[in-house]
Amino acid sequence: MKSWIQKTLVIAVALLTFGVISPNHIIWENLLDDKADQKSISSHNPDYTYEVEWSDEQPSNFIEDAISQAKELSLQKFGSRIGPVITNEFDTYIFPKIQEAIEFTLLDMDKDSLKSLAISENPSGDRSEKIFHIIETATGSDVIRFHVRTDLKPQDGYFFNFHYHTASDQFAKHYKLGDIYWSKNMPPKWLS
After folding, report:
1. Mean of the per-residue pLDDT values of the chain
2. What share of the chain is helix, strand, coil (3-state, %, to 5)?
3. Residue range 79-131, pLDDT digits in tens
4. Mean pLDDT, to the nearest integer, of 62-74?
5. What is the pLDDT, as a whole number, of residue 24?
6. For helices 95-106 and 60-89, what crossing angle results, to 10°?
7. Which pTM does this prediction carry?
8. Residue 188 near residue 168, CB atoms below 8 Å
9. Are 141 and 135 in contact (CB under 8 A)?
10. Band of residue 14 on the pLDDT scale cut at 50, 70, 90
11. Among residues 18, 177, 191, 178, which one has the least CA distance to residue 102?
12. Cα separation, 144 vs 102, whole angstroms
């Protein structure tokens, strides 16, 4: 195999696998023209092992998982009565802002802090606001809280106000994600 093709292939695989498959991995032995030389090197070293080291990209898996769970928990909160009415508008306007807020808040955290985060499992029902919280498991404290409130605007009707709070300001400020109109009639309770 030509040297430049081999180098390009090694770089491409390293980038695509975030370094999990290293250039001295056994896969590369099969791609080299001089297989015999490579096998003799590894056979002279009976202690030859390879180890998987995760790159710094690993904690982003929590961010991806949190975004996926955020979607599921939101749909669970809406229930079978509210969900079919607002899901399209939620997916189009609100959820991308939730995703952005999660990424913005968590991307600044170091990888050790990300490893100790979890997402709450159950949205609250009835008329409560909680959709989900992202929690620091070691201390049990919230990092970010996502809520939806039912607002009645006189002469307009009922709206769902999506917002979040962060620990950086002790959850004092409402960061608005957007509103979705329901109707002039009171909406059903959450989770129904």
Report:
1. 80
2. 45, 25, 35
3. 999 999 999 999 999 999 999 999 998 888 888 888 889 999 889 999 999 99
4. 90
5. 52
6. 160
7. 0.68
8. no
9. yes
10. low
11. 177
12. 8
Of 152, 154, 162, 155, the closest CA to residue 182 belongs to 152
Q: Which long-range contacts (CB under 8 A, 24 or more apart) does 105-114 make?
A: 105/134, 105/143, 105/144, 105/166, 106/62, 106/63, 106/66, 106/134, 106/143, 107/63, 111/56, 111/58, 111/59, 114/59, 114/62, 114/63
Which residues, listed in sequence order, are joined to residue 134 by a DSSP beta bridge? 119, 144
Amino acid at 45: N
Q: What strands, in cross-sheet order, belong to the sheet with 130-136?
A: 117-119, 130-136, 141-153, 157-166, 175-183
First to last CA, the chain: 63
- Quick one: tokens of 71? 């979607």
DSSP letter, residue 122:
-
